[in-house]
Structures are given as C-alpha cells and as structure tokens.
Specification:
- The chain is mostly loops and about 100 residues long.
- The longest helix is centred in the last third of the chain and has 13 residues.
- Helix content is about 10%, strand content about 10%.
- It has a 3-stranded antiparallel β-sheet, with no helix packed on it.
- It has one domain.
Length: about 100
C-alpha cells in the first residue's frame, strides 16, 4: 500500500501520540490536498506531530494507527466514492494483506 493516498472518515477526536522526533517507522500520515504531511486541522484532525497517523515495529508486523480503517472498508461507508473503486474501498487492502500474511505463515 506504499504511496497510497486514501480519504479517511474521522468521526471523533482521534488519539494522538507524542514524539520528540518523527519516528523512523511511520506507515501512515495525515496529508493536505498536495499530499504533504499536514500539521493543521482539518487535514490533521488531532494535531499529531508531523501528521503521523501510524507507526510499526522494525520488522513491520506490529502496527498502530489512527484513524480506523475498519470503518471505511466498503465504498458505501463513504459519503462519496469513485465508481472505479467498486464495492471495496482501498482501505480493504489492509485486511486482505493481513489475511494473506497469516495464511502463508
């Protein structure tokens, strides 16, 4: 999912992690319309440091993130989605990837 830019539903004050420096293992960031990490609302809904929305451990198997991709894995969960997405939103790929990883390991 590297380099994906996917809209996200924000329905409450997202959790915020505080860092002295930007972590090396950032896997998700809140971005502005130009796809640059955002520090400001509404593009960064919780004001997280440098727009950090998710990090993982060194081997990439353990991940923490806000927002909640399980809330938007179907396109009907969005107020609008492009027709080319079909029934599953791009967020579904997280769950598909986890399933494939668990199945082969």
């Amino acid at each position: 999912m590297k380099d994906s830019v996917i809209p996200v539903m924000v329905s409450h004050g997202e959790g915020q992690a505080k860092f002295e420096d930007v972590p090396q293992n950032v896997i998700a960031s809140y971005v502005d319309p130009s796809h640059n990490a955002s520090k400001i609302y509404p593009f960064n809904p919780n004001g997280s440091h440098e727009g950090v929305a998710g990090v993982c451990n060194d081997d990439g198997r353990i991940m923490i993130m806000m927002p909640h991709p399980e809330r938007t894995y179907l396109t009907k969960q969005f107020s609008w989605a492009p027709s080319e997405w079909g029934e599953l939103s791009p967020w579904f790929k997280i769950f598909e990837n986890a399933y494939k990883f668990a199945k082969k390991n």
